[in-house]
Amino acid sequence: MPLLELRDESAGYDGRSILREVSLTVEAGERIALVGESGAGKSTLLRLLYGKLGDAAALMPQDSALVQALTVFHNVYMGRLHERSVWRNLRNLLLPAAADVQEVREVLAPLRLEEKMFANVGQLSGGQYQRTALARALYHPGRVIVADEPVSSVDEHQAREILATMNEEKETVLLAMHDRSLALEFADRIVGIRDGRIVMDTPSAGMTPDDLDELYLSKSAIAA
Amino acid sequence: MILRRESSPLGRATSGFLLIAFVCLIFADIAISTGDPWHEFGLLLTGIVTPDFYQTDSLALAIAYTLAFALLGVAFANVIGFGLALIFHYRIVRVGCAFIRAIHELFWALIFLQMFGLSPLTGVLAITIPYAGIIAKVYAEILEEADQRPLSALPVGAGRASTFLFVRLPDAWAHFRTYSMYRLECGLRSSAVLGFIGLPTLGFHLETAFKEGLYSEVSALLILFYLIIATMRVWMKKPLLPVYLIGAAAILPWGVAFSWAHIGRFLTEDIIPYPIRAGGDNMMASLGDWVSMLMVDQIWPGTIATVQLTMIALVATGFLTMAFFPLISPLLLGRVARTGGHVFLVVVRSTPEYILAFVLLNLWGPSMLPAIVALSLHNAAIIGHLIGRFTETLQLRLDAVRGVNRYFYEVVPRIYRPMLALLFYRWEIIMRETAILGILGIATLGFYVDSAFADLRFDRALFLILITAMLNICVDAISRTIRNRLRLQTTLEER
After folding, report:
1. B30: how many CB neighbours lie within 10 A of its CB?
2. A112 shares contact with chain B (CB less than 8 Å)
3. Do A134 and A146 form a contact (C-beta atoms < 8 A)?
4. What single DSSP character describes residue B351?
5. Does B3 contact A47 at a Cβ distance shorter than 8 Å?
6. What chain A residue is nearest to B11 in terms of C-alpha separation?
7. Is the CB of B407 inside 8 Å of chain A's CB atoms?
8. Domain boundaries in chain A?
9. Of A183, B88, B357, B376, most Cβ neighbours within 10 A?
10. Cross-chain CB nearest to A59 (options B399, B403, B414)
11. 495 residues of chain B, pLDDT tens digit each
């Protein structure tokens, strides 16, 4: 049985439709990259998928959306807020419990963030900030990760590190990416979107970035 | 490797203030001394839900006077304040404005009452003078923060006046208008409260009705007052302003006579410290005695009580704000519940803290408790409203948790800084109001001021008012230092 299935779904905001009759089947264990021009509907499709998955999926939104005034520990701990009692959450807000600190430390250590555990997120560098957002998603118990442009604001070295960790730690990976070569390198299936429709759905094996060109050419260029 | 949570300056400031307030609370008298406070409270509630609009013969007149004092007072304050804002770069103007706004409008009213009696001049001046000091400061800040970029695009040689009219004023004008509407709301509250010292505004009738237990009448007066404030944006239109001002000036009873000789004596004799007035060989020695007597008997205990009450009220306001802002926050409550929240906050912040304290004092008997509750309710409703509106601008993640978890992890960390900024900004306002509540019988500085006026010892009253003003200026300075150090900023809309 597939992990999730979309059949002729449409979506949009304020009566304006962005996705038109999209069908997509995702199997557990797949690593799927959604590619396409900005505004093509990648984020909307990703949100639709996340909506179906519910708390089975960890989310890494486009702007990371960490709480600036809280520490790295707290932001990562928030990945399991919904699983813990309110009292435990309250207690951890004021005085982090040793057991939870240990758990979070294990997530942070491989991401080289252990020393920053009790720094406020507002004081982090761009890469550290992005890795904290990843740590939060990794700490989330869901086996699926839904990430919208997770590496758009970091250099290529850090981007590879983040994507590799994601593939390693989560069973199923759903990404929206604009970097074509990274998408081909880290995903095993490419879903191309243009003007709110899926126009390409192929395994990434053997593809080159040039094969994705048709997704990025504007309509007028094709007509010409 | 040491993994310790570095204590943040914000956290240290918070625990410091909590500790101070706790110590103040230990020494505070917060007992309820009336025999059966809940019985009287029941009667009050019954009265509140059964308003009687036909009890007070002069209800319409009381409302009209309240409006008239507020309109004239705020209008004059706007004109004077604007003028002062233009010359605010002179140190003498800044200091002068800080001084006149450090004295509460009720203290000004008590002073003018000795000079002009119950003439409308007393009420209008009592609002105009402190408000002019506040408006001058805020308008000066608005002009300073106005967009400077158009300045560079101006042709070389454009005169100062035209530069001001074309570049600085247009940008600031919208802010001036918003702010003067807020000031008018404050003016209406001040005007209502002036009734408590004898002017014919709402407070006068409120006090009478309350003392006689006519709670249905109290309710009617308050409901009318809320309606006026709630509908302000409807009736306060620019083209109508001249009509309102002329109308206000026309209905006030200017006929009350006052004697210039009397005013002259007040200014040149009555308010001069007694030993100086008496003169004699050992004037300096007796002046020293006079000051130290006031110091030991009144200033010292009055100041301690004022500071103590202020600190408790400040921290209590913080706690209440945390409970109030969710009432109107779309992140935490649904549309229907928020409507109720808005009504609740409007009512609580429209009720002057003086009136709240007066009501609670009558229910619970004299102690610090009514003052603490009144000050924190009123101020928390104001800050809670601003913070609640601020949360409308926050974007939460798609997967943000809900309920209590959302409140503590997503919302509170984001609003804490702006909330502290507003809280420290209102610190001085809370202190000014704390001193005033002394008139109701709580032993803050206002209590000694009021007693001195009652005993016709105007020299003492003035001296005590000066001390109170100094105290306010000190707290303002401390608050500014703390806000700068913690980098807490308030935006123009929040002043």
Report:
1. 14
2. no
3. no
4. S
5. no
6. A94
7. no
8. 4-223
9. B357
10. B399
11. 444 555 678 889 999 999 999 999 999 988 888 778 788 888 888 888 888 887 666 788 889 999 999 999 999 999 999 999 999 999 999 999 999 999 999 999 999 999 998 899 999 999 999 999 999 999 998 888 876 666 666 666 666 777 777 777 877 888 899 899 999 999 999 999 999 999 999 999 999 988 888 888 889 999 999 999 989 989 998 899 999 999 999 999 887 777 888 888 888 888 889 888 888 788 888 899 999 999 999 999 999 999 999 999 999 999 999 999 999 999 999 999 999 999 999 999 999 999 999 999 988 988 999 999 999 999 999 999 999 999 998 888 888 888 899 999 999 999 999 999 999 999 999 999 999 999 998 999 999 999 999 999 999 999 999 999 999 999 999 999 999 998 887 765 555
Predicted model pTM = 0.86
| β-bridge mates for residue A11, sequence order | A19
Question: If you measure CA to CA, which chain B residue comes closest to A62?
Answer: B397
- CATH of A4-223, picked from 3.40.50.300, 1.10.3730.10, 2.60.40.1260, 3.40.50.920, is 3.40.50.300
* Closest CA relative to residue B190, chosen from B429, B473, B479: B429
Q: Which CATH code is given to the segment(s) B54-151+159-253?
A: 1.10.3720.10
Task: Mark B168-202 as b/e (b = at least 16 C-beta within 10 Å).
Answer: beeebeebbeebbeebbbbbbbbbbbbbbbbbbbb
CB contact under 8 A, A93 and B409: yes
Domain B297-495 class, CATH top level: mainly alpha
- B15 in contact with chain A, both atoms CB, cutoff 8 A: no
Asked if A93's CB is within 8 angstroms of B401's CB, the reply is: no
Report ipTM for this prediction: 0.76
Chain B residues whose CB is inside 8 A of the A105 CB are 3
Among B410, B63, B370, B48, residue whose Cα is nearest residue B217: B48
- Sort out which chain A residues have CB atoms less than 8 A from B399's CB and list them: 50, 55, 58-59, 61
